[in-house]
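hi!! sorry for the late reply, been swamped w classes. u asked for the two structures so here they r. pasted raw, havent cleaned anything up. first the sequence of the first protein and right below it the tokens
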Amino acid sequence: LYPYDAESDEEVSLRASKREINDKLIEQLEERLNRAGIAVEEAYISDLAYSEEIAAAMLRRQQAEAVIAARKSIVNGALQMVESAILGLEKRELIRLDNEVKGKLVSNLLVILCGEDNAKPVLSL
């Protein structure tokens, strides 16, 4: 038995390993049908049907993977923006940044850039 989708690229699955699945199907059919003198020339799975529960679970998994990929993209973009901002400030010598200030700046910018809500600035008076 093979899973619909594999956890890793090396694992055989119905979705990603069509050639391997077809080869195994032919092998299994030949094993059973050769005794009756029937030769199997070609065999393949053309359609897979799942219960509603399984299909819903598979859809949730795909959606979760899409959310994770989007979050990774957002974080990577935010990191590049933060790095560019710090390098730009240091290059222009607009402000002197020690490690503590850099840490606060990185933290604040990542919260703003990766957050779900729009930033709400707060000024200390």
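now the second protein. again sequence first, tokens right under
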Amino acid sequence: ARRVVDEKVSSAMTKMKGQFEKLVAEKEKFSEWRTEQLKRLEDEKSRFTNEKKVITDIVQSQSGRVVLNVGGHRFDTSLATLTKDQNSMLAAMFSGRYALKAEHDGSYFVDRDGSNFRYILNYLRDNTVTLPPNRLLHLELLREANFYQLTGLVEQIKASLKRIEQQLDAQKPDTKPR
């Protein structure tokens, strides 16, 4: 009788061990699924947060539209963009501390070279600027960035200008006697 009981116990233990291993495998699958779902939700949240920021910026830009005439070039932008860098000349101009007089068409005239002003606006919008590898353009834009007191843009232009000058130096023929 004892042997029968031992066999039944052994059989039950084997069955329980199999069920336990099955539960452990299911737990691992669940943990993997849960991890995937958390990552998917985090990615979705990140996309939503970015989307919300873009839409908020668009709504904000529509509520404070400003038309500039920079050296004869017309630029449509927003008050939020113009005042983004609080230490800049544009932020000071459009802060409300100064009485700016709009032209008859509602635009604000700025007596500067408007041919490169789009780079100024793009910097204010994105906090970065993409420039073609043109040394003269860099120098012109550096003068404008200094005028508008955009220190971050000044630093970006200087770094880009340094890369251009290094490339130009590397292309110069070696003039040292051999």
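hope this helps!! also noticed smth abt the second:
The two ends are 105 Å apart (CA to CA).
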